[in-house]
Amino acid sequence: MKNTIRFLSGIILLAMMCGALIFAGFIYDTGNIFNQNTNSAKDVYFFQPDDNTARRPGVPVTDTVLGASKMRDRLIAKYITEYFYVTPDIADVTRRKEGRTALRRMSVSDVFNAWLKNMAPEIEGLAKSHALRTVSLLSVTADTNERYWVAEYELKTWYAPNNFDVTPEITRGTIYLGIDYAPGMRDTVGGMPVGEYLETGGDPVAAFKFIVIDVASYQ
């Protein structure tokens, strides 16, 4: 009698185990069954934090979409940065003084020569002392005669390298820029087709119809 009970109990346990396995398999396959029956699809979205292509994935935004005034302000911001920034790299200063950077292509000869005389020595001295300077554009407005664009900026200069306890020196100033700007891009840059110029690693800012023709004063 006891053997019969044990045998029946074993059969019942085996049946329960088989049932549990079948049920588990059904649950595991439910997702595939649901997808096959409903033809569900997944859409992928990216968070777009900025119009600048360096800060988001996707197709670059053209100047037409961005708007002429916003594009002009961004080009001014780029110019101000090129005008004042400092890195602890003498080779970078040499390139800038030789005109192998965006500043030269964004300036007429007189403006670039004035930068060489007025700003380059200060920048070179700071670079030799391993200082670092960042530049922020605060605002851009047209003057009352609409002859210049008035750009207010902020400089942060760290004089001591590799010392996080030293706070930067913060200074603010105003620069008056006479600008010749038109929406769109140039056909050539430096005698080179614009596409070829960009493919060879040229700075994209030079491809825009933007040039500084006068710097009245800065402080």
Please render the helix and strand layout as text.
Elements: H1 2-28, H2 30-38, H3 63-66, H4 68-84, H5 90-97, H6 102-105, H7 109-118, H8 120-128, E1 132-142, E2 149-158, E3 169-185, E4 188-189, E5 192-193, H9 194-199, E6 208-218
How would you summarize this macromolecular structure in one to three sentences?
With 219 residues, this protein is of the alpha+beta class.
Descriptive report:
With 219 residues, this protein is of the alpha+beta class. It contains 9 helices and 6 strands, in the order H-H-H-H-H-H-H-H-E-E-E-E-E-H-E. The chain has helices at 2-28, 30-38, 63-66, 68-84, 90-97, 102-105, 109-118, 120-128, 194-199; strands spanning 132-142, 149-158, 169-185, 188-189, 192-193, 208-218. The protein has a 4-stranded antiparallel β-sheet, with helices on one face. The longest helix is centred in the N-terminal third of the chain and has 27 residues, at 2-28.
SSE order in H/E notation? HHHHHHHHEEEEEHE
Strand content: 15-25%
Mean pLDDT: 81
The global form is elongated
Class by SSE composition: alpha+beta
Keywords:
219 residues, alpha+beta, 4-stranded antiparallel β-sheet, two-stranded antiparallel sheet, 6 strands, elongated
